[in-house]
């Protein structure tokens, strides 16, 4: 927890709980980062983890012996005294359901709190047991270490998530850029095809026009030949219909006409 005003009225129960053992501070020390912890809890936590990190924000402490937070200690002592004076009852979970005795011990074999009568029973008499307070501190330090590992794993997952999201966004940007380039290239290709089509159609029409002109000239010539030949045939037929003397008189002339009709 961070340092707060020393007035007891300004502190709630949550403000007076150690972040390691989650109990009211016994001898709180103040770290440079502003968080507090029980002195004993902090020393055991540092021994367990092999480093001097704040149990809340994981900031490394520059001092092996952080100072006592006297104002917080006074507030915690006052809170404990007031709770004792009011005679607050302990939760029902802190009492043994079999023997109606307070759960003062912890069985390491079964990993559960027991009472002194349970310890003497056949179930637990050969098991390793210790006071609840000692076991709670040890287990909370153990869980805190695991929590630290989980937090690091969560940080790694978040970093991986950010990397993957960046990769996804990069892939989208690359795809969008490639799409734009493809459209530009196809547009240039389409433009080239349109120009090529236009040029080829123009050449086709030019060739058509030239050939049409030639054919028109040939048709005109054929028409003239047809007209001339038709006239020649008509004259030859007229000559044949004439009487013999007239036919023979015009024979040379008629002969020239039909001979000329072949050319």
Rg result: 57 Å
Helical residue percent band: 55-70%
Please summarize the sheet with the most strands: 3 strands, antiparallel
Helix run count = 6
Q: What is the number of E strands?
A: 5
Secondary-structure class: mainly alpha
Q: Outline, from the CA principal axes?
A: rod-shaped
Strand content: 5-15%
Q: What's the arrangement of strands in the largest beta sheet?
A: 4-3-5
Total number of domains:
2
**Helix and strand run:** EEHHEEHEHHH
Mean pLDDT: 85
Low-confidence spans: pLDDT under 50, at least 5 residues?
1-9
First CA to last CA: what distance?
125 Å
Structure characterization notes:
The protein is mainly alpha-helical and 263 residues long. It folds into 2 domains: 1-88, Zinc/RING finger domain, C3HC4 (zinc finger) (Herpes Virus-1); 154-260. Helix content is 60%, strand content 6%. The chain has 6 helices and 5 strands. It has helices at 39-49, 70-86, 116-120, 132-241, 244-249, 251-260; strands at residues 28-30, 36-38, 105-107, 112-114, 129-131. Strands 4-3-5 form a 3-stranded antiparallel sheet. β1 (28-30) and β2 (36-38) form a beta hairpin. The chain is rod-shaped. The termini are far apart. The model is unreliable at 1-9 (pLDDT under 50).
């Amino acid at each position: 927890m961070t340092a707060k005003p020393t007035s007891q009225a300004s502190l709630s129960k949550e403000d007076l709980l150690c972040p390691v053992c989650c109990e009211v501070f016994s001898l709180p020390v103040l770290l440079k980062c502003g968080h507090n912890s029980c002195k004993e809890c902090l020393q055991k936590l540092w021994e367990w983890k092999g480093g001097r990190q704040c149990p809340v924000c994981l900031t490394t402490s520059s001092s092996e012996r952080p100072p006592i937070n006297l104002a917080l200690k006074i507030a915690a002592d006052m809170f404990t005294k007031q709770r004792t004076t009011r005679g607050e009852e302990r939760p029902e979970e802190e009492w043994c359901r079999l023997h109606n005795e307070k759960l003062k011990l912890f069985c390491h074999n079964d990993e559960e709190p027991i009472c002194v009568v349970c310890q003497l029973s056949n179930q637990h008499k050969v098991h390793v047991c210790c006071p609840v307070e000692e076991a709670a501190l040890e287990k909370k330090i153990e869980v805190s270490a695991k929590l630290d590992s989980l937090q690091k794993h969560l940080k790694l997952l978040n970093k991986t998530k950010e990397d993957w999201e960046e990769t996804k966004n990069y892939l989208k940007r690359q795809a969008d850029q490639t799409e734009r380039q493809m459209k530009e290239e196809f547009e240039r290709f389409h433009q080239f095809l349109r120009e090529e089509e236009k040029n080829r159609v123009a050449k086709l029409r030019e060739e058509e026009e030239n050939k049409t002109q030639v054919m028109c000239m040939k048709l005109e010539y054929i028409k003239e030949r047809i007209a001339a030949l038709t006239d020649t045939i008509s004259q030859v037929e007229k000559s044949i219909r004439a009487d013999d003397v007239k036919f023979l008189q015009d024979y040379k002339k008629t002969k020239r006409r039909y001979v000329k009709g072949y050319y």
